[in-house]
Amino acid sequence: xxxxxxxxxxxxxxxxxxxxxxxxxxxxxxxxxxxxxxxxxxxxxxxxxxxxxxxxxxxxxxxxxxxxxxxxxxxxxxxxxxxxxxxxxxxxxxxxxxxxxxxx
Length: 104
Known about the structure:
By secondary structure, the chain is of the alpha+beta class. It has 4 helices and 3 strands; from the N terminus they run E-E-E-H-H-H-H.
């Protein structure tokens, strides 16, 4: 058990180190048998939830996709593609979900 580290999935403190990949420490939960790392990234995403939320909030406030990409570059040091931002909007906002449902 590692002091102060809890599983992201079941909040158990019964975790152990599971190695490093590209300099990032991974952990293994002995209770739910899942691996995790200590960040706020969504599963299978390379961008933090904070950045995705900020991008979707800016879109809902009326900002263009290109302006959002430039803002993220200034604030976080990397610029996601406009297609990536469209994907976030479609997946994480009610506006995008409504548009997606109309198309089906």
